[in-house]
Amino acid sequence: MHRYNEHPPERRLQTSAYRANKGGMTPDRYCAHLDIPEPGDWDIGGPRRAIKRRTFAKGKVRIPAGYNFTQDTWPYWNNAHHLIPKGTLDSVIQKQEAKVSNMIQKALLKARYNINHKKNMLMIPQDREVAALLNLPRHIQLKDDDTKSLPASCTNHPIYNLIVDRMEKGLTEIVTEYKKICHQAAAAEEHGIPDAELDKARLENLSTKLLNLILSWGRTGGTGPSLDKKANQALRKSM
Q1: What are phi and psi of 181, to 5 degrees?
Q2: Which of the residues 92, 105, 116, 180 has an alpha carbon 20 to 30 A from that of 37?
Q3: Could you give the CA distance from residue 81 to residue 223 in angstroms, rounded to a whole number?
Q4: How far apart are CA 113 and CA 93, in angstroms?
């Protein structure tokens, strides 16, 4: 993955904010250009200094030191991506018989599994220019024709959709194993919701595998983060 502070851009980046149908720009809290980032400016836990910028809606704003990613346009237009989506995990668990489903939920709470933990999160750029600089896939396509070779797919995840099959297979294997453990625990206790010991590391390891898959698209020899049709077709064949 490209490190912005090792090879910073030579000039300010023009952002991919676009004109909204109702007038004004989207997102209106964003800016027309991003300054060349200094070390720490785009880091989680950054910036190391307060950064001032002019936004479309509010004029001058100040990003305090340490406040990156606390808003969807700090330090750049971004979106938090769940590697294992909440709805998918819930759906796989709810498909089990009621007693097993309740046992799995109780056991994961006891194990302190947190689907919103940083191990299951990736902060993804929504700005096309930032995504290209960081060699990361862009989170979603937001406007018809802002990438000419890609058909309109507003609020869709053109690249991330490709990992759904692998993620669902991994979840099914994990929950199937959880189910066996729950059946064994249930056999020893007839009343209430029996206790079962489930290892949250299996879910966390799946998140790590999915993260590495996403990042591999931006590495040398990978298919790259492009959203165009040919890149998507190449990714499908490789999987």
Answers
A1: -65, -40
A2: 116
A3: 21
A4: 14
